[in-house]
Structures are given as C-alpha cells and as structure tokens.
Amino acid sequence: MISEPELVGGVAFENPEVLTETPPPRPPRARRPWLWALGGAVVASAVWGGGLYAYGQKKEPGPDLGGYKPVEKLCELAELKALGTVLGKRSQDGAGFVVDEPSMSESSCSITYGPVDTPGQSVDVTYTLHKTIDPGPEFAVRARQFGVLQELDGIGEQAFFDDHDGQGGTLRILDGQAEITITMFRQDYEVNGKLVKTKWIDFTGIDVPMTQDALALMAALKK
Questions:
Q1: Which residues make Cβ contacts (< 8 Å) with residue 180, sequence separation at least 6?
Q2: Domain presence at residue 188
Q3: Range of 214's domain?
Q4: What is the spatial distance between Cα 207 and Cα 169, in angstroms, rounded to a whole number?
Q5: Which has more confidence, 197 or 72?
Q6: At 110, is the pLDDT very low, low, confident or very high (cuts 50, 70, 90)?
Q7: In a domain, 46, yes or no
Q8: How many domains does the chain have?
C-alpha cells in the first residue's frame, strides 16, 4: 500500500494569504502647506475687499426732513385763501424756478390778485428744503439783513415779519430743514408812458392772514 508522501523540509503556513479583487487602501496624502496658505490668503483678500466695498458704499444718514419733500408745482399748494380775503380775487399764477439737487431743493411761484387788465397786488412764495446742512444758525442773521423784523411765535421754529413801512410785508419762516418766504408788494406798471398805481389797501395787520396761509402751506408741503 502506497501512503501519501511526506513533505520533508517543508514550511507550514499558519495564516495563508487570501487573494481578493479589491486593492488595499492607500496611505493618506500629506497636505501641502503652501496650497493651504494660498487658499487662506485668497479668502482673506476677498473678505477684506468685500468689507472695503461695503464701507465705500455706506452713506452717512442725512438730517431728518420732518416730512418735507421737494415740490415742482408750488403754486398749486400755495392756496393763500386768507390773503385772498384782503387782496381780492386771485387772477394769475406764474411758476418760477425749480431746483432739486442732493444738497437742497427750491421752488417758487408768483401770484397776482385783482383784475388782469388793472394793477393788483402780487405775492411771491419761495420754498427751500435743505437736505444736508442745518440752516438754523444762519437763519436769523440772514433774515435781519432785509430790514427791521418783528419776531413771531407759534409758527415753525423761527419766524420774522417785515411790514415794508406799510407797503406790503415779508414773512420768513424756518421749520426744521425747510425755509418758507412769503412776500407781498404793490404792483404798479406803466400804460402809454403813464404810471398806473395799484388800488390802495390798508395792510395793517397783514401778518395775520399771511401767517394763516403759511401754516396751511406748511401742512400741504408735508402731504
């Protein structure tokens, strides 16, 4: 009987290797420090640049305009009903200049009372809105340059009236960032080389209806 041959000098394999189709995992790559530094610098530059842009775009808030805004058709808002009871029927409106800039806006109008073919009284209205500066410190100084003024209470922050020696009147008002000026004067003109004078009206106490109309205009300018 032939027995199985014995392995002489053979080596015993305690843990035989098992072959599989999946390769063993590779060791992790070492991160390159210069790439990391470059990426960080790019991100930091973008963040800094974005912050600089945002800072450049940021605008300082302007003063509180108190509800006032620019207007183009000032004559439509300046009804001047109280003055009409003294001066007569409103006959003509003349729109003046209009300015609307980032620093300020201004508009004006001229209103005539009485028949068109005869001399009447005229009223000029000017509205100025300061958008950047505070007009308060200079308002009284500038107003006093135009004559002897009477200070009025109860209208705006400051108000002054000049009666023009009984020939009309000018009312100057400061309300926050807004300045309103109402000026009334007699309108005389020539016909065939002859001076035609306006019908005489007693302007005593004319500051009262002017103040009433100014308050109504101030309310209309805020709507």
A1: 125, 126, 127, 128, 156, 171, 172, 173, 214, 217, 218, 221
A2: yes
A3: 74-221
A4: 7
A5: 72
A6: very high
A7: no
A8: 1
Q: Which residue has the tokens 């003055």?
A: 83
In a domain, 19, yes or no: no
Total-model pTM: 0.70
Residue 133 lies in a domain: yes
Three-state secondary structure string covering the chain? CCCCCCCCCCCCCCCCCCCCCCCCCCCCCCCCHHHHHHHHHHHHHHHHHHHHHHHHHCCCCCCCCCCCCCCCCHHHHCCCHHHHHHHCCEEEEEEEEEEECCCEEEEEEEEEECCCCCCCEEEEEEEEEECCCCCHHHHHHHHHCCCCCEECCCCCCEEEEECHHHCEEEEEEEECCEEEEEEEEECCEEECCEEECCCCCCCCCCHHHHHHHHHHHHHHHCC
Amino acid symbol at 223: K
